Amino acid sequence: MTLHIVGDLQGCYQEFQDLLEVLAFDDSDDELWVAGDIVNRGPGSLECLRSVYQRRDRIKIILGNHDLHLLAVAHGHGRLKKNDTLAPILDAPDCAELIEWLRRQPLMRVDRAHDVAMVHAGLLSSWSVTKAEGLAREVEEVLGGDQVDAFLSQMYGNTPSRFTDTLTGMDRIRAIVNVMTRMRFIDEDGTLDFAAKEGLSSAPDGFKPWFQFPRTVDDLPIAFGHWAALEGRTPESAIRCWALDTGCVWRGTLTALTLPDATLTSVPSRQ
């Protein structure tokens, strides 16, 4: 089986269709993963969400920070921002069905047959993939269960800025979510910086991109999105990884990694 992993869609529906055509994606034989941020900023957020939902048997997603923002707004625990393109989803007749499905999606996926883990932003170097899967399940149980509103009402925030195993309650869930969906720069202790969002030159003193810290616990390659300013590059990386958010919504490209051959395919933005 061929596995395609696509970077952030962010409402770029037409480009998503272009990429599926170029890949000659075959629902009967291939599988396709999307590295989070299915929605927001681009003009086709509703169409993107409907597309992955309607083909959910062969197209698998994980949650990114924009997807979580949609969940919070839909549950009444957040407000639309100036540049959000989420209103068509919230106004759609199938909104409740889409939101109910979305909140039950995972934070990461692992395919050991293809030797890859996918997460939206990244993983701390101290986390094995197995540990990260367990932490992701903690969040998934909250989002998919009765505590969903309790968490979404407390989801926004930068504290605690460092995950520790002693964290409990919603602080623990928020810290896991921030690592997996918002992380860019960290220091040697695994403390996250939330202010710097541009390229590598914007790193604060004492901080480096998370992928420049070696993983001593395992070496499973990681496919991630979230960081469009990298433009698909991970210079001085200490791990095996692919940066797949190539800024389609910012007039860049939409990119897919195809395994097992590890080829990259991109289509230009129509934005």
TrEMBL record:
Gene3D superfamilies according to UniProt = 3.60.21.10
Enumerate the catalysed reactions. P(1),P(4)-bis(5'-adenosyl) tetraphosphate + H2O = 2 ADP + 2 H(+)
Q: What InterPro entries does UniProt report for this protein, alphabetically? A: ApaH, Calcineurin-like_PHP, Metallo-depent_PP-like
Q: What is its EC number?
A: 3.6.1.41
Domain Calcineurin-like phosphoesterase, by residue range, is 1-154
Q: What Gene Ontology terms describe what this protein does at the molecular function level?
A: bis(5'-nucleosyl)-tetraphosphatase (symmetrical) activity
- Please give the name of this protein: bis(5'-nucleosyl)-tetraphosphatase (symmetrical)
